[in-house]
Specification:
Number of domains: 2
Number of helices: 14
Low-confidence stretches: none
CATH architecture of the largest domain: 3-Layer(aba) Sandwich
Largest sheet: 9 strands, mixed
Radius of gyration: 24 Å
Shape: elongated
Structural class: alpha/beta
Number of strands: 19
Strand content: 15-25%
CATH class of the largest domain: Alpha Beta
Mean pLDDT: 90
Distance between the termini: 43 Å
Amino acid sequence: MPSLLGKVVRIDSEGAAPSLASLPEVASQVASQWKTSRASTVKPGECRLLFPAQSHPIAGVASGEQPRAPQTGPDSLPPKNVFLRNERLEWTRLAAAKGVRALRELGKINGEKQVIEVDSFSSSHAAAVGAILGLWNVNHFKTRGLMPGWDLPLDKQGGRHISVAPMNGLASQDEKKSLRDEDDDLCSTGTPLSWYTGEVYAHAQNWSRELQEVPANLMSPTIFSERVVNAFKNVPHTQVVIRDAKWAREQNMNLFLSVAQGSEQPCKFVEIHYHGAPEHHSAPLALVGKGITFDTGGISLKPSAGMDLMRADMGGAAAVVASTLAIAQLGLPINVVTVAPLTENMPSGRATKPGDIFQARNGLTVQVDNTDAEGRLVLADALSYVSETFSPHTVIDVATLTGACVMALGDVYSGVFTESDSLWHQLKTASEAEHDLCWRMPLTDMYLPQISKLNADLVNTGGRPAGACTAAIFLKQFVHGLEDRTKGEEQCVQYAHIDIAGSMEAASNTLNDYQAKGLTGRPVRALVEFARRLAYTS
């Protein structure tokens, strides 16, 4: 049994801790120490470490004044009541994270596991998310110091010797599920938001973060595949299939193989199936993730400064496999097929050269003008395969694709490219609920002339103007079932491309108590919430 390290509690406007009402003596000392510390009860997020006699340490976090909806704002703002709820959820995430981070420093590395009990604040789901994300650390490879190093067992790396739990030690899965968010607009469904869902969402994002943070020598396509297989062991209704280069050749995935051929590491193609819908054979949601485990740029070599970050160029693959794991763990009544083409992009004597032409799986020919625009090549064959083979109702790809998207949106928003108004609304609603924000970008055939060549059907770059848009329209050409609207035919599949080149890393604007500087694991929570809502509203 883990020992109790401390508690995170909400301090109300009177300076009291309502969650400690059953411990009047402790509650009285907390109120007194809070007042003595001259901490504000008005300022939300004000945090103090308190040490009541004969009690474990207490991290008190002021709730402050609740946010008010803006009187005016852009059309993109959600309705007033939804806006206020989303703001309260985000405050709860930040408050829970601030408290656990304060207590984390009191933990000792002595071989035993420790637990921090966390108040639900205004949402059990959001409190669990904030606490678990805030507790996570990237310190796997430290061999000295106060935090666990890479020579320790996996369950003690990354701060995992400390865990979080709801207040009063509720530990069973059923107890955690009983801590529901009553204002969840899906609270009457089989999977309402609760402390348990918060755990699942946060652990999935942390897994995505971890996959991205591990250096490329320890996260090759083979190792990534093995991590996926191990993660899905004993998860009901799931199947993981790992494909190799021989299979890719049989599928005519020549664009994928053109990127892989420069590396000594064998490429892999991860395929995950989750059957959660009552109708086993009903059309699935398809998730596709770019899986470049290290990107040098190939022959079109990148500058060396900052190239180490390219270990995370598989951020799309990390996000979709982690999201699929969470969807399966929640048991959502939906079918999902997830694929991730995995390879390095390396310069070598076998590497693709600028000007080379290859035929894609769907028959289109592509000229490779810049080998550093490799992500759209591996995604093209993956999109063709998943959309044609499984006939999904929705296809979403996630990729660290373009520097142009970084320039447009920074690290705040993920860029969403879709022609479907309904799909955009669903993604927007989910992203705002989880504060895993996205912004709609144009997906239009008007950008096609930029990526057309006389000696091939397409070229993999369109120059500097609208770089994120030309990448998106390139990918659209490989989604089977997207009919030409000029023919007056309805689309039989919805498609969205999500560019996370900026949001993959918290560098400046998005730093907070649950997101330290580093890789984010986004947009896992937005994708899982999207799937939860889709499962019960479609």
